[in-house]
Each structure stands twice: as structure tokens, then as C-alpha cells.
Design a protein that fits this description.
The protein has 109 residues and is mainly alpha-helical. Helix content is 70%, strand content 0%. Helix 1 runs antiparallel to helix 3. The longest helix is centred in the N-terminal third of the chain and has 31 residues.
Length: 109
């Protein structure tokens, strides 16, 4: 016989954990961008494959990012607080993942 209450408890806790981790990560990225530290992904080159971004397009995107950073309306103190908040969100994500691993692996109990 299936214990539906236990099944529902696991489902709700997994859903809540997922929403919390994804929400913290998204908020951390948003705060990092508002702090003026937009994550820049360098172009990837693969053997026998196309280049994701040409050097000309990369230079244009870097110039656009610098222009956007100059337009940032936040004061330096607000930028620092946004950066601290972003790092706190990322720390929360790491803590949730480590706690999940702790719960799964019986060696840690």
C-alpha cells in the first residue's frame, strides 16, 4: 500500500527546495548584474565546429557592456550591497546543495 501523505510530503519538499534554489540563483544573478559585474561568457571554439562568437561581435558586446555599466544609476555603496547580496544568494544555493548531499549520503550521518 502506498503512503500518499509521505509521497505528498516528499513531493512538496522537493518542489519547495527546487523553487528556493532556483530563486536564489536567479536573484543572485540579477543582483550581480545590477552591481555592474555582468557574467561574460567567452566565446567557445570547438574542433571542426563553428565559433560561437566572432572577435568583432565579442568586441561589440564588450563595448555594449561597458556602456551599460556607465549608465548604472546605483551609487558605489549600493553596488557593493548588491554584490554582497548576490554572493549571499550564491552561498545559500551552495548551502542548499551541500545539505541535500548530506541528507542523501548515509556516510555523513
Amino acid at each position: 500500500m502506498i503512503d500518499w501523505i509521505a509521497f505528498l510530503t516528499v513531493f512538496v519538499s522537493a518542489l519547495a527546495g527546487t523553487v528556493i534554489v532556483v530563486g536564489l540563483y536567479a536573484l543572485g544573478l540579477r543582483l550581480l548584474v545590477s552591481a555592474g559585474r555582468a557574467p561574460l561568457v567567452m566565446p567557445a571554439e570547438f574542433t571542426d565546429a563553428i565559433t560561437v562568437m566572432s572577435p568583432k561581435k565579442l568586441a561589440r558586446e564588450e563595448k555594449r557592456a561597458e556602456k551599460a555599466a556607465r549608465k548604472n544609476p546605483l551609487t558605489p555603496a549600493q553596488r557593493a550591497m548588491a554584490r554582497i547580496g548576490a554572493y549571499a544568494c550564491f552561498t545559500g544555493c551552495v548551502a542548499a546543495v551541500v545539505y541535500g548531499i548530506y541528507l542523501i549520503v548515509p556516510l555523513f550521518h
